[in-house]
Write a structure and sequence with these properties.
Length: 599
């Protein structure tokens, strides 16, 4: 219920935000009868259709009554179709496109194509009947049902176009889709969001119906108004296709952004943590683990009672074990185990892993086993050879489990990279660490558990690995570039095409110039492709893959970085000390950029 409420409130906020502007004209038009048929009997109807409708009508109901009923129902039909298609496309669109190997923006193009067809159907009645023909097979319980078909099509088209507005739920659905676990948590969140969005849109549609009732000329010239509506729908589709509507949207302050951002954290917390936890012995154990995870987020330290550690599950392959044989927590009983969740192109993980490697090296003979669980954040991180190469570059020698199905991630109810779970010799989780930092404190807990498991043991001196965790609170946050989780973009709608960058993007944002193909996880450079980033940090890293060059310009200096192979992190800018700066990066065609991270 918490997730449903989060989705509901987030949907209402989105329905009132500038994101709704591109679809608002059609919602207003759809609320009136401008998108319907003429009220005069027989006008613009396909042969035989009016007679069929009259046979299904209630006795004594005339065409004026039918038209009045249609006018009353139309706002609900349009918004209902929008809500249904929006929920379906948002929930299953990413999975469907991935399974069919279709472009990431195929849903948007489907919606735009439907809008053009609806517009043409309004201009040419015969074409309109042809478009509606598939709906004739549905049972008709009243005379106005047939005329509602047009409204249903409009709603479906708008729902497909409106999918990119689903910002507050996309992060949750990304994890659910990547793990193949779309359950009641994700469904509840998505449906709540769709219904919440429908509430203000329905108000707009009802307002459009009210306006149509009050305009006398509208009632006398419905055919002309319908033609004008058709032209308006086509014009809107063209504007959306070429991102012309963003000129208006971009100039209007996003007055709801802070509210939406405050809900996103709550939205992403639920689907990745479905209740009692796979492998736990009940709700109490799940609650204990959740309490330890919350303590870690609040900066807690010390040994705790977090419940029994769940088994490794869904592991595709093991690296750095004898003959590639799998490890089990049951088989490690008697040892202190550190389970470390990471991803090889995660800069936060790259700063944390040297400490885990040092502990694995120095305390192995004293009974410590470090197990790295590699759970991919991007599609390229599912490839075992890429992970193996990344582990070699980082100098990792401890066992690594490839958790491509998110089985172990979900068993531990984990929600972030990096995250570490310290397990004592009896198999109980005693401490959770989330993110970077506090390595001396974590090492001290390891030493305490080793001493408890082996009383009288003489432990080596503590490791001395530099802590490179950024401490500047003004540092620019991680910036994703793929459409699925993009944030901080300064420019028109984020869609495949040519971009013109502004003179200088504001701090903590980026702009594009040249030709770009916008994908779900990454953006691929075309001719003249440049990313301009305004940041505050000491170091800037770009996660990029392919074969080519990065031409980096910052502070009046230019350097060329050669890129080859699977995606990885490249240092593109260094500022000492950290300060506000701007970097421009020209990517050779074919390179795919995933995200900026900072240090």
């Amino acid at each position: 219920m918490t997730l449903v409420l989060i989705g509901l409130v987030g949907g209402i906020i989105t329905g009132l935000s500038p994101c709704v502007l591109p679809v608002l004209p059609v919602v207003l038009l759809g609320g009136g009868s401008a998108l319907g048929r003429d009220s005069a009997p027989g006008k613009d109807s396909a042969p035989g259709k009016d007679s069929a409708l009259r046979r299904d009508s209630a006795p004594g109901r005339d065409s004026a009554g039918q038209h009045a009923e249609l006018a009353r129902r139309r706002p609900y039909v349009v918004v209902g179709g929008l809500t249904l298609s929006f929920a379906v496309f948002t929930l299953f669109g990413t999975l469907l496109l991935g399974s069919l190997h279709l472009p990431a923006d195929a849903i948007r193009w489907l919606g735009l194509s439907l809008l053009v067809l609806v517009g043409l159907g309004l201009l040419v009645p015969a074409l309109g009947h042809l478009i509606e023909r598939p709906f004739y097979r549905f049972p008709q319980r009243s005379a106005s049902v047939g005329a509602d078909r047009n409204g249903i099509i409009v709603g479906i088209a708008l729902g497909a176009v409106f999918v990119p507005c689903a910002g507050p739920v996309l992060a949750a659905i990304t994890v659910a889709g990547a793990s193949g676990r779309i359950g009641w948590h994700t469904i509840g969140l998505t449906l709540g969001f769709a219904v919440g969005t429908a509430i203000p849109l329905l108000a707009f549609a009802l307002a459009g119906r009210g306006m149509s009732r009050r305009i006398g000329a509208y009632r006398r010239h419905q055919r002309a108004f319908r033609a004008v509506s058709g032209a308006a729908v086509i014009a809107l589709a063209v504007a959306l296709t070429f991102n012309l509507s963003d000129i208006v949207q971009r100039d209007i302050p996003n007055y709801t952004q802070s509210l939406a951002n405050s809900l996103e954290k709550g939205a992403t917390a639920g689907p990745a943590a479905p209740g009692g936890g796979a492998g736990s012995s009940g709700a109490a154990n799940g609650a204990a683990l959740a309490a330890c995870q919350q303590a870690a987020l609040n900066g807690g330290s010390g040994l705790e009672e977090c419940g029994p550690a769940p088994a490794f599950s869904g592991i595709q392959q093991w690296l750095n074990t004898a003959g590639g044989k799998p490890l089990t927590l049951a088989g490690l009983r008697g040892k202190v185990v550190l389970v470390d969740f990471w991803a090889y192109s995660c800069i936060n993980c790259q700063r944390e892993l040297p400490h885990a490697q040092a502990w694995a090296r120095d305390y192995a003979s004293d009974g410590l086993e470090v197990v790295g669980v590699h759970t991919p954040e991007y599609a390229f991180e599912h490839v075992p050879s890429n992970v193996a190469a990344g582990a070699r570059r980082l100098g990792l020698t401890f066992p690594v489990a490839l958790d491509n199905s998110y089985g172990t991630w979900n068993a531990f109810e984990n929600q972030s990279w990096p995250a570490a779970y310290l397990i004592d010799a009896t198999g109980q989780i005693r401490h959770v660490s989330v993110g970077e930092g506090d390595y001396p404190g974590e090492e001290q807990l390891i030493r305490q558990l080793l001493a408890a498991a082996h009383p009288g043991i003489a432990l080596p001196a503590a490791t001395d690995i530099p802590d490179t965790t950024p401490s500047d609170p003004a540092q620019t946050p991680e910036t994703y570039l793929g459409a699925e989780r993009q944030q901080g973009f300064d420019g028109p709608r984020y869609a495949t095409g040519r971009f013109t960058a502004p003179a200088s993007p504001p701090l903590n944002s980026f702009a594009l110039a040249g030709a770009w193909t916008i994908g779900q996880e990454s953006i691929t450079a075309g001719t003249g492709a440049v990313i301009t980033l305004a940041f505050h940090a000491a170091n800037v890293y770009l996660d990029v893959g392919g074969t080519g060059t990065l031409t980096v310009s910052t502070g009046g200096a230019t350097k060329v970085i050669r890129v080859s192979g699977a995606p990885d992190i490249y240092t593109v800018a260094t500022e000492q000390p950290a300060r506000d700066a701007v970097v421009a990066i020209r990517l050779s065609p074919g390179l795919a950029a995933y995200s900026f991270t900072f240090g």
